[in-house]
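Question (not urgent): is this output format expected?
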Amino acid sequence: VQLVESGGGLVQAGGSLRLSCAASERTFSSYAMGWFRQAPGKEREFVAGISRSGSNTYYGDSVKGRLTISRDNAANTVYLQMNSLTPEDTAVYYCAARNVGGVGWYAVQYDYWGRGTHVTVSS
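Got this back:
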């Protein structure tokens, strides 16, 4: 499956962005989806995950209460609504698809990756 992220950009601290990740396959609903981010010099970090049906969501501790993951299986798209952004949220954001198993917390558990979208939060 091919994944294409969009929606990144430059935003001031306290602002919001909505990221989208469009999948190429009609079997999109068969994948658990995740969002990860990677800042310069840091490891790739789990941000949020969502089950195949969308009924279960999971968040990294650093983003709880500020970010919301959702999906539209009819549109083959997963979203990441980001509010109350801080400079520490600056990173490249990647979406990922997992074919077997539930939402994973580690990058190695995912089978397919997008190329990422840059998010820069200015102070």
